[in-house]
Design goal:
single chain; 123 residues; mainly alpha
Length: 123
Amino acid sequence: MSVSRSRILDLMKVRLSKALSKYPFTLSQVQCRIFSTTFNPTSTRTGNKILRQRLKGPAVAAYYPRRVATYKDLRALYPGLETWDEEEEDRLEYLASRKARGKGAPKKKKSSDGKRILLPLLF
């Protein structure tokens, strides 16, 4: 049988009232030490409730099935294998239609000798 927290606090107030006069602790500080809670006399929002919770990352990662293989992986493993990636074909068709309408990506910049200019990375 467990004793309720309020009963323990009542007993602490009676017994510790004399002892607290000797030490620089308040009743709430002693209470926080006994019950392993954070002492927060001004009731500021510290985010302690969130930090005490279990991490959700492993549970979320376990929910989704592992990625086994994609068309790209199969092409890399077996270069001679003929595969048909319908999504990739649709994407290429979409880009070709955009380019035909003049909405495609701009051409790469070329130097006078016909080679592409490589711009330095700025980060």
